[in-house]
Task: inverse folding
């Protein structure tokens, strides 16, 4: 290992209890799942998560009891399940603290943090309860510097009194963790397909950990620098983690795994079966290599392989599993 | 009565597709809106542009995505970027003609709840996924079309939580709140299609699906539904059904 290369265990060990953290990806694609599994194995507690549309990455961490507070727009696997089952239970039982935003306002908040400005104006949220109602109390906000002292602020434009905007507070996190297609040991990163808010999330974090399907030579990525969206010096650690987003998709590499997602969503419905899932696939296995064996190894992974022309698997069985 | 030659989902997808005009920029969500926009592209609106909030512009879908961030959304997209590019340059700047929304509750002014059930959102009896991009689409698209399951409890007088603002309290209240454009145009439900009166912005029944009556739809609505002038929803044509089944969703992802 040289440069910024490290392994998953060492990288996840950098995260202290109580850290603020965001994960890349969007609902069913490119979440750094292997990193999340390792955080759970390490028994992390009291994490503060920031996200726009996370999926099972958050649901597992919430179910494992690793999370104290979240700020989010959405938590679900979309057509696989319209609400994250552990997120739902945690809210209904009062086991988690949270604040609701919208996708645009969360991404605007990451962008403000990434740009080094205190807030971002948006024309969204006006008239909604996302703006009017607060899930966190003002004492919860005031007593904890990890949360903005105020949810949002409505402002009249200083240039035109007829225009109103909502200011949303910048986010700066201790960690951002991304799972991408390619990276170098120098921290150059190639994201293929949709970038989601990965770039903004990385640039508003103090420590940026990138897990990648492939580690490639600098020359390979520097031939097309316009396709490398994150300044390499901002990336602090790089891990080589093939199938690091499983059971979620990575464009050009593999599709999501409908069988695994079905097993998760059925298991996560109640506490006992969720525990069994966690034990079978996360805490009961040593590392990501053992995880990949537990989910069915090469035989299963072969069924998810992306077609080179489409970037996903056109023959993937997605219904009547 | 003979059972119709199509399912309710097929009928709703066709009705949703008909809301899209040729050449429009469409912000589509997962499920029925994807069926609708893919059908529209293959029938009366070949030049409509599909935008997914996760970052793709002008996809030419070959396989139904199960998420707006699905790798399938990348197929022949003209541009791929991230959420910020789509939300700012496309949606906030006013370049989206029609956005599709759905939720657990919809009220008479087309306000939508996809956050939680219960008066106090700090202690909800049922929690849902949350807004995602719905609030943003509701605020910033030029118009919206809402898809919803038609049951009295899902159409209350007032939603428990306004995740996505519709006409708010009716009249000019949406504009008064500072929203610069937009508002719901139609609610496509499992029983019919509602639209909104031009001045009061209150919902009325524009059409009821074949086999139903205006009275039966009103009975399944939690607020007093104006049914004056409602007509029967035109049934899907054999051509629309063939395209839906054979080209849009041959895997049965959403058609079942």
Result:
């Amino acid at each position: 290992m040289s440069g910024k290369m490290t392994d998953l265990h060492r990288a996840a060990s950098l995260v202290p209890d109580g850290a603020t953290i965001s994960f890349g990806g969007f609902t069913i694609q490119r979440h750094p799942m292997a990193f999340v599994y390792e955080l759970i194995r390490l028994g992390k507690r009291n994490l503060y998560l920031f996200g726009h549309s996370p999926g099972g990455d958050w649901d597992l961490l919430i179910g494992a009891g690793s999370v104290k507070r979240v700020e989010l727009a959405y938590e679900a696997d979309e057509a696989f399940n319209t609400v994250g089952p552990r997120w739902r239970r945690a809210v209904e039982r009062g086991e988690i603290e949270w604040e609701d935003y919208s996708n645009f306002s969360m991404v605007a908040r990451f962008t403000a943090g990434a740009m080094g400005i205190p807030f971002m104006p948006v024309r969204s949220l006006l008239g909604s309860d996302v703006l009017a109602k607060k899930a966190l109390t003002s004492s919860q906000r005031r007593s904890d510097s990890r949360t903005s002292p105020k949810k949002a602020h409505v402002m009249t434009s200083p240039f035109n009194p007829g225009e109103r905007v909502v200011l949303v507070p910048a986010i700066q996190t201790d960690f951002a963790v991304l799972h991408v297609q390619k990276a170098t040991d120098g921290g150059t990163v190639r994201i293929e397909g949709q970038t989601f808010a990965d770039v903004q999330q990385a640039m508003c974090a103090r420590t940026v950990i990138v897990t990648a399907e492939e580690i490639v030579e600098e020359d390979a990525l520097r031939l097309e620098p316009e396709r490398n969206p994150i300044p390499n010096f901002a990336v602090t650690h790089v891990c080589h983690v093939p199938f690091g987003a499983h059971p979620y998709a990575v464009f050009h590499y593999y599709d999501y795994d409908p069988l695994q997602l079905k097993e998760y969503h059925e298991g996560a419905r109640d506490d006992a079966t969720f525990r069994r899932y966690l034990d079978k696939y996360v805490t009961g296995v040593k590392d990501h290599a053992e995880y990949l064996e537990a989910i069915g190894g090469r035989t299963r992974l072969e069924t998810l392989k992306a077609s080179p022309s489409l970037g996903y698997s056109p023959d993937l069985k997605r219904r009547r599993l | 009565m003979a059972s119709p030659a199509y399912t309710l989902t097929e009928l709703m997808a066709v009705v949703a597709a008909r809301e899209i005009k040729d050449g429009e920029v469409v912000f589509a969500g997962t499920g029925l809106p994807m069926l609708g926009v893919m059908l529209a592209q293959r029938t009366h609106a070949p030049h409509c542009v599909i935008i997914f909030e996760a970052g793709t512009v002008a996809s030419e879908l070959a396989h139904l995505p199960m998420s707006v961030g699905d790798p399938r959304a990348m197929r022949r997209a003209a541009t791929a970027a991230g959420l910020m590019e789509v939300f700012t340059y496309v949606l906030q700047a006013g370049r989206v003609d029609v956005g599709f929304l759905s939720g657990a509750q919809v009220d008479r002014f087309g306000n939508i709840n996809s956050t939680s059930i219960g008066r106090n959102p700090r202690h909800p009896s049922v929690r849902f996924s949350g807004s995602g991009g719905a609030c943003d689409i509701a605020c910033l698209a030029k118009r919206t079309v809402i898809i919803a399951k038609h049951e009295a409890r899902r159409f209350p007088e007032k939603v428990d939580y306004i995740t996505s603002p519709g006409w708010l309290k009716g009249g000019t209240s949406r504009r008064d709140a500072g929203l610069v454009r937009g508002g719901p145009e139609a609610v496509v439900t499992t029983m019919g299609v509602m639209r909104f009166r031009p001045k009061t912005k209150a919902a009325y029944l524009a059409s009821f699906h074949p086999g139903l009556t205006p009275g039966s739809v009103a009975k399944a609505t939690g607020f007093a539904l104006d049914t004056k002038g409602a007509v029967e929803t035109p049934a899907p044509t054999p051509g629309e059904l063939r395209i839906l089944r054979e080209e849009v969703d041959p895997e049965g992802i959403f058609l079942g």
